[in-house]
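Weekly structure sync, notes
Attendees: PL (lead), two postdocs, one rotation student
Agenda item 3: pending single-chain targets
PL asked that the sequence for the first pending target be pasted directly into the notes so everyone works from the same version. It is reproduced below exactly as submitted, 259 residues in total.
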Amino acid sequence: MSFLLQRTVFSKSTQIHNSIRRYSQLQALVQDSDPDLTYLDGFPRPDPKYDETILAIPRSNSGTSISTKERKAGRVPSILFEQEDGQHGGNKRLISVQTNQIRKLVNHLGRSFFLSRVFDLEVRSPAFESDDIVEKVRVLPRLLHLHAATDAPLNVTFIRAPSNALLKVNVPLVYIGDDISPGLRKGAYLNTIKRTVKYLCPADIVPPYIEVDLSELDMGQKLVMGDLKVHPALKLLQSKEEPVCKIMGARVSDQKKSK
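Predicted structure, written out during the meeting:
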């Protein structure tokens, strides 16, 4: 039993070490290849209309009762941390943000698009209106928990996003070219398989969304993740062969109507 336990611990330790090493290699590759990464022409970039600094205040305690009090006061209990190796977090800070501000951003952008956008965040003390800034940092919303009935924000998790950071992001997909797709014009329909795709993104060029071009798809054809056109510095974290969408034959109900 002792031997098996040591072997298991060693195996897990090796896996973690390899994961950290791969992440470090990817980070070095991105930094060495182009220290000033920017959005490229022809690829989506964040709409400046939604540039906004998220205001926060420090929170000393956590727990169900504390969170309930925060929400009643018009604040969303949140966490700010660093993504040390692409997965495990560190340097955690408990904060609260304004419910109205988060609700407005989520309503304007949409939940998936809110989670794929980098924001400036200021932690002020002791109040949102204070001039005393404890921390000013760029962040990516990582998790957002909404109330099932009202869609009110209940919790938000942010990760720090300095220029040298690599961030795992579920990037939303936006389908275009459906009006001229040969298959769709023949009466077929689009089977949407994926709404988001996970990439490892340099913090300076997190895409707000990825366009999926349907303009050349005919009946029976599909697009896989490897077909998506993205910035060359982005690394796909899912199989290239995983399907994104497919043009399917006409629905049975549609066929009956045409007879």
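Discussion points:
- The chain is about 25% helix and 35% strand.
- The helical segments are 2-33, 64-72, 99-109, 111-114, 182-185, 252-258.
Action: rotation student to compare against the earlier draft before next sync.
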